[in-house]
Design brief:
alpha+beta; 6 helices; Pnp Oxidase, Chain A
Chain lengths: 222, 222
């Protein structure tokens, strides 16, 4: 992957770059499946002309992506004013080794969205956070102590409508120049995958507390 | 991880947020190890007031991170003017399940850097790209057909000095409120790891070409 393959485009400035035009996929099922198998997004925004990009957890509900944070956060305070943001998610799926150095590539799935973020009101916020925790692991919300009023008030949730949104996906073997297929070089893909490793109970866990099934059964779906 | 734990800060505006102040680690060894085990970064920049964030491959040489792309790329054309960028890398290492919903967290390692990107000259560019390919897999540069002059001229390399740079790391079990340790709730960490799966030779690979050892032996180090 280089930036040609995943070019940032302003909503009104989408231009097709020939070499990678086949990467652009705009159907909603593709977009949703990329979003729903990711836990971390990147939010870019501008304060006083300075760009910032912040990795943060996010989750999708219908046509919106959501992220949360401290009410004291500089990022959220900036974003609650409705400033433009650029939202991005990337899965890296493999290293693509071609017959020529120029054609090495990365298999990936990515989504990019543009818009103005909105702060959720109190009731929407509570429903959205419960939805996030249970989307991560069904049963996790009921498992833990519920937030106190003080904890609720320390948390904000921001959402962005998925109106200006696009996905790009690269899969499969390398694409070499025609004449390079005659070379003696090996070519292929080294797939990458994120896995769940053995659960590590808290060393301070009280005796006799079993690991719940929703934890034992959890598998990363990215 | 929420944005409190990984707050974007302008170079001159670093403030400590009490709850996560222990996350900030600025030593260079920590920063380099996070960078050197990552393949994808996020570059944020601003064009006409609109923020963009682009995922792209990167690599570190000494005190610089580098990324490459098409000479026709909108991102690179913007960045070669020396506009401010925000560079970010994130590894997600685990899901941290606490005894209270408010204290769920993510184990992660991240780096953020600010500065103005510079376009490399022709000879520096060629050395940097060779360095990138061999950093990814030692032997890969010599393996493939070398770039033609036309291919070289279609490629640019941008670099950013790691002068305004910081790292944040969260590891270990959940940190619950004192009184919550008496609850009956399970707590612990589900570690996540990116692995290399079985190599997939190109279906168009010519008969008799063996997979080279530097491919067979490759293991993801993220």
């Amino acid at each position: 992957m280089n930036e040609t393959s995943n070019e940032a485009k302003a909503p009104s400035q989408r231009t097709v770059i020939r070499r990678y035009s086949w990467l652009a996929k705009y159907d909603r099922d593709t977009i949703n499946s990329i979003l729903d198998t990711a836990l971390v997004c990147q939010i870019a925004y501008v304060v006083d002309g300075q760009p910032f990009v912040t990795p943060t957890n996010f989750w999708r509900i219908d046509n919106y992506v959501h992220w949360h944070g401290s009410a004291a956060s500089r990022m959220l305070r900036a974003q609650e004013k409705g400033i433009p943001v650029c939202f991005s998610v990337t899965h890296m799926d493999g290293i693509v080794i071609a017959r020529s150095a120029f054609n090495h590539n990365i298999n990936f799935r990515s989504v990019m969205a543009f818009g103005e973020a909105q702060v959720l009101g109190e009731q929407e916020k509570r429903a959205a956070l419960k939805g996030f925790v249970d989307k991560l692991m069904l049963g996790l919300w009921e498992h833990a102590r519920q937030p106190t009023e003080k904890e609720w008030s320390a948390t904000k949730v921001i959402r962005l409508a998925l109106d200006e949104v696009s996905a790009k996906v690269r899969t499969g073997p390398p694409i070499d120049d025609d004449e390079d297929y005659a070379l003696d070089s090996w070519a292929g893909v080294i797939p990458l995958r994120t896995i769940t490793e053995e659960v590590q109970p808290d060393p301070r866990l009280r005796a006799g507390i079993e690991t719940p099934a929703f934890v034992t059964n959890f598998r990363w779906k990215g």
